[in-house]
Structure formats: structure tokens, C-alpha cells
Amino acid sequence: MVNILIFGPPGSGKGTQSVRLAEKFNLLHLSTGDMLRAEIAAGTELGKKMSAIMSKGELVPDEVVIEMIAAKIDGVKDKSGFLFDGFPRTVAQTVALEKMLNDRNMKINSMLTLDVDHDELVKRLIARAELSGRPDDKDPAVIENRIDVYREKTEPIIDFCRQKGLYQPVNGVGSIDDIFDRLSALVSELV
Which end of the chain lies in a sparser environment, N or C, as judged by fewer CB atoms within 10 Å? Predict the structure, then answer.
């Protein structure tokens, strides 16, 4: 099974593109954000704890996310692989993901990174807030914090994956279809 990380800062289009790629290539779209928001919506204890963390734009504890992902992977048999959207978010999470995958005789095959400039990200997040009502996209201070957290904690994964030959930058600006075509060309080489 192929395992692809789709990467980029908040507002880069990871979620939109992941859904389309998963459908086209028979991959399971693993959005940790969606999984955590489902816990919050269900009002579980985990959801209540995570709501307080996420509302500030902070990151969820690694062990919680790895456990959720492992359960999803272990329950799937009819897919060509997995598309990780929004995870890992730190080098430590990347190492933990690699270990969990290695325990299942799997590996990370590629990291596709959507490159989008700061002003475009902010514009997209504000527009998304109007459409989806996501509270983490409404407050400019939270948006800036999310982007800063990405730059500080998540961008170092790019160097980690570059050293392993996994990093593939993708121009994340243009129409949704143009970006999808760029990503599809890379994914078709992996599946």
C-alpha cells in the first residue's frame, strides 16, 4: 500500500485536493482535523479536551493522533493506500508515523507539499470561514498563530523528508483543477 503525505500551511488546499485524489486513486483520505472535529461534534471526552486546544490554533498530542490513525489503517483492506492530510505536523510525529507504518510493513512513499504565499493563505482562510463557519478560520489572530505554528513546528518536516528523498514541492496557486492535475501527475507515478 502506498502512503502519501499531502502537506502545506493552513489554507493551502490540502483538504480539497485530498478528497479528489483519494477518490481518483482509491486511497483512504486520513484527515486528522476531520477525525478530531468528529470527536468534538460527538461531544466525547477526547473531543472536549481537543476543542480547547484546537480553538487556540495549537497542536493535538502525538499519541492521540497516532492511535486514531493506527485504528483507521488497521480497519482498511480495500484501498490502494492512504493519503495523510494534516498529519504529521512535527518531526516527532513523522518519526512516530514511520514507526507505526514500519510495524505494519509499510512506509511513507512521498510528501507532496503545496506551496502558497502568506497573503493568499490568509485570503483563502477568511473565505473558507465565510463558507464553512469553521471558528479557527474567523479570527485573524488565530489564523496568524496557525500559520506561525506551521512555520515553526511543521515546516522542519520538509527537510526531514527531503533528506529521505520523499519531498516533492507542488505549486499550490491556480485553479483547483490545475492544482489537482499537478498533484495527480505525481500520485500516478506512485500507485
Answer: C
